[in-house]
Amino acid sequence: MKLLDRKVYAPLSGLAPAHLGTPTAVQPGVDGLTRRSQRDFGAGGPDRGRVVTLLMCLLVAAGLAGLYGVPMASAQNFGTVALDSSSSVTTVSVIFATGGTLSSILVSTQGISGTDFTKSGGGTCAVSTPYTSTQSCTVNVTFSPTAPGLRLGAVELFDSSDTLLGTGYIYGTGKGSLLRYNPGTQAVLYSGLSSPQAMVVDAGKNVYIADTLNARVLKLPWNGTSYGTPLTVGTGWMAPSGVAVDGAGNL
Known about the structure:
Structural class: mainly beta
CATH architecture of the largest domain: Sandwich
Number of helices: 3
Largest sheet: 5 strands, mixed
CATH class of the largest domain: Mainly Beta
Number of strands: 16
Shape: globular
CATH topology of the largest domain: Immunoglobulin-like
Distance between the termini: 10 Å
Strand order of the largest sheet: 3-12-11-6-7
Radius of gyration: 19 Å
Strand content: 25-35%
């Protein structure tokens, strides 16, 4: 996993999917607004209202960006598709952020392949072809929602060393019935938490928890039949109280 800083686009420093390698700290950018603590903004004073107003304007302008780590305006919208059906094949354009020879193409839902978004034939992205930074190519994708509501995905291009060359974010909405049942037999998945404030479940059924007073983020990995041993995937924050997973599986 790699530690990322998405500036105003994410509520937390990011943790990239497992296929991106070992944890690597990245120096936060200094341009634009980055994450700031309550101490940085101040607990009061004449500027507090102005800061709050500015933050609200940023959230409105970004839409769902604050929740999912990428401006939705830059993501490809597959529209609304009924459950148990598929969209038409849609062409997704991906811009190379880094030059290199394309080795593999991953189409996933929150980093999990073979679910809502799948690669179709065609497209101009060619494996074993060298590309330069800012070049673009296309991948054909089909959207088949597995659950109702917003579904987040991504098209990612890698070289032979699993270096990420470019990402195209995608999303769509599943349409169908959603039932809510009273809980049956409940089970404690993990008890070593201290005032957890938030959790999220990704497309692979893995659970991520903002373990607030322990100043960490935990992952409860789903192995297909049960949840495995909790993994600490992020530490060093001061009382983390929110967690989200974007279309590429970045936490």
